[in-house]
Amino acid sequence: MGQEALKDTSFTIVEGGSVTTPQGFTAGGLHCGLKKTTRHDLGAIVCEVPAAAAGVYTTNIFQAAPIKVTKDSIGQDGQLRAIIVNSGNANACTGQQGEEDAYEMRQAFATAIGVSADQVAVASTGVIGELLKMEAIRSGAASLPAKLGSSYEAADDFCQAILTTDLVKKEACVSVTIDGKTVHIAGASKGSGMIHPNMATMLGFVTTDAAIGSEALQGALRQVTDLTFNMITVDGDTSTNDMLVAMASGLAGNNELSPAHPDWAAFVEGLRYVCEVLAKAIARDGEGATKLVEVQVRGAVSDEAAQAIAKTVIGSSLVKSAVFGADANWGRIIAAVGRAGQPVNPETVDIRLGDIVTLAQSRPVVFDEEVALEYLKGDTVVIHVDLNMDNGAATAWGCDLTYDYVRINAAYRT
């Protein structure tokens, strides 16, 4: 397993790392019969010791049953031993029966691995409004412990088990030196549709062997979420099921982390990097997407204003359609900037597509359309917006809007 150091960072990328790289974690996945295909549809991450836990959840009013169960588990004492995840069925808008099924799913896996039920979290993703096939869940939960392992293959099985319309798995891993000890931070996520910045915007799972309390972990997770997962959008829809859960085994042997710890910033930076990689991977894998789109806003009156503007631009269907068509239509961009509801001086806005200046001080600039066309045909498009007002800055990520997005979602249930 190779490592590649990043310049000017306090962490090291772990190539080939996974959610089982941090000490104390195993993972696995299998097909239990929730999906019509034979793809994996049930997975789990398990920690050999009680792990400090934290979570952030969708802001959708219609929160799925698994979210209630997970909040209940983490809320007991801020610790988890495991999380079980199914794909193929969201168990959302399923009423009292759906809630009972989610709790039974928790109990079934807790029994299978020999821990208390309140030490297990539950996550689900898939079609809304259908009851879980509980016979399949029971059978799968009983068989899952035999599939758990610390190998990359076992972690890959977990990654495959959480996918729905995703085309690729999403994972990242770094190491950070804390108190002279090597601490690992890893993550896996799924998401390609129903993605919009209002945390959480997908299913995400972070493991670390850092020694850190639940409260400090919750604070760090919320901080990095606002800068990463909350800054992506695919289609403007916030799911009923989305959550991000972090578990810390504490087995790295460092002194307990808190904001007062001298290496706190290094830990948060590593956590942010992992979450940013996962967030960008979700945006790049948007349903039907052909391009990753990045919007960098600078010169705003505040970071919050910059975030709102960047989200508005990245979420604009007109901007996304123009990028898909490789049309250097900067008018779509400035129109989105102007409707974001934030302070903007209409006389000082600059816009670039990559290095191509299209607007300077809110006035059109003559540019080579052919050069712009070639740039927009690439698989990554960066839109720069400088308001030239103050120091507020933010970056958001999304994707283009394609014909395939409509095709995929027109037949989602069938």
TrEMBL record:
The enzyme's main class, written as a single word, is: transferase
Which keywords label this protein? Acyltransferase, Amino-acid biosynthesis, Arginine biosynthesis, Autocatalytic cleavage, Cytoplasm, Multifunctional enzyme, Transferase
Provide the Gene Ontology terms for cellular component: cytoplasm
Residues that span the membrane, as ranges:
none
Q: What organism is recorded for this protein?
A: Paenibacillus phyllosphaerae
> Care to name a GO molecular-function term for this sequence?
L-glutamate N-acetyltransferase activity
Record keyword ATP-binding present? no
Concerning Gene3D superfamilies, the annotation shows: arginine biosynthesis bifunctional protein suprefamily, ArgJ beta chain, C-terminal domain, L-amino peptidase D-ALA esterase/amidase
Residues that bind substrate: 164, 190, 201, 287, 409, 414
Recorded metabolic or biological pathway in which this protein acts? Amino-acid biosynthesis; L-arginine biosynthesis; N(2)-acetyl-L-ornithine from L-glutamate: step 1/4; Amino-acid biosynthesis; L-arginine biosynthesis; L-ornithine and N-acetyl-L-glutamate from L-glutamate and N(2)-acetyl-L-ornithine (cyclic): step 1/1
By what name is this protein known? Arginine biosynthesis bifunctional protein ArgJ
